[in-house]
Structure formats: structure tokens, C-alpha cells
Amino acid sequence: MTGNEVAILRIGHRPERDQRVTTHVALTGRALGASGMFLATSDKGVVQSVLDVADRWGGNFFCEDNVRWRTCIRDWKAGGGKVVHLTMYGINLPDIIGEIRSSEKLLVVVGAEKVPGEMYGLADYNVAVTGQPHSEISSLALFLDHLYEGSEFSREFPGAKIRIVPSQAGKHTEEL
Ligand code: SAM
């Protein structure tokens, strides 16, 4: 695993329709090496689901809702971090990931239905995971995989209560 610290900022979440996708943004980030998610809406249901998974499956993933997204971005930059906004209108991922990898702290912003135009100016990098429309989950997954170059597959999750014993057939788990 490289040393890049990644946090996710999820903007535009609508509690009445985005709960499943936002939860999956967090779980994808957690599984692939991010350290936590800021959610720019109040939604305790999402926070609880994500923290329940983190408690059982280990690691130190944080999930914080009701975050003011402009303040979050400002504070992140003030702490020396860079901001990556995933958008199909940005620079294609393979053309910029080498430069991005040199930043130790990255805040990765993903939207929902409509992202305010202001976001494009606030980001240090607007990054496209192809120039085709798809989703915040797939774009985050591919971004993290390119960032960590596959090392996320051997990541450890300290404090886990359960782990999977990989097998060709059947479901094998181990309580720890
Ligand atoms: N139509 C919306 C807009 O233009 O603001 C985006 C809707 S999309 C369902 C939700 C999020 O998925 C986007 O905000 C972006 O973060 C991510 N996304 C979708 N396709 C992408 C792509 N090709 N590259 C990078 N991110 C993408």
C-alpha cells in the first residue's frame, strides 16, 4: 500500500433516494483503502450502516454526516491536502494519476444527481474515469485502484471480528 491518505466527500446526497448508493460509496472506499467519508447531508441511517460494517470487519473507517462541504474542502486544503473531483468532464484518469499520487493527502469528491458548477473551480484536479457517464461507486473504485496500483488487495483490517477464508467453492469465514 502506498502512503496516500484518502478521504471521500459525498455531496448532493438525498436521504429519500440515495441511501443505498451513498452507503456503497463508503463501503467501496473502505474496502479499497480510503480512511473515511464526509457526507454533506444529515443521514444517521447511512452513518450507522457504515459504522456497523466497519465495527465487524475491522479497520478505522470514519463516517461523518452533516458536513458543510465548502468548509470541508477549505479545511482539507488548509491541512496541506489536495482535492480530486471525480467527473466525466475532467482529465482522463491515466493521464493525471501519476501527478495525483505524489500528494500525500487526497479528498475525493463524488456527486449525486447535480454537482454545483463551483465544485470544478474548487478542485485541484477534475478527473474523469472515462468520458462516459456511469456512477460514483464505479468511478471511486477505479480511482482508488489506479492510485494504489493494486496494493489495496493486500490491505489489512486490524480489529476485525470476522474475516473471510478465501475458497474456490462455498462460503468460509472465521470469527476472530
Ligand atoms: N449528471 C451529474 C452531473 O453532471 O453533475 C452526475 C451524475 S453521476 C450519477 C454521479 C457522480 O458519479 C458524479 O458526480 C461523479 O462524481 C461520478 N461519475 C459518474 N460518471 C463519471 C465518470 N465518467 N468519471 C468520473 N466520475 C463519474
Protein architecture, described:
The chain is of the alpha/beta class and 176 residues long. It has one domain: Alpha/beta knot. 34% of the residues lie in helices and 23% in strands. It contains six helices and eight strands. It has a six-stranded parallel β-sheet, with helices on both faces. Strands 7-8 form a two-stranded antiparallel ribbon. Strand 2, helix 2 and strand 3 form a beta-alpha-beta unit. Helix 1 runs parallel beside helix 2 and helix 1 runs parallel beside helix 6. The longest helix has 14 residues. The protein starts with a strand and ends with a strand. The model has no long low-confidence stretch (mean pLDDT 97).
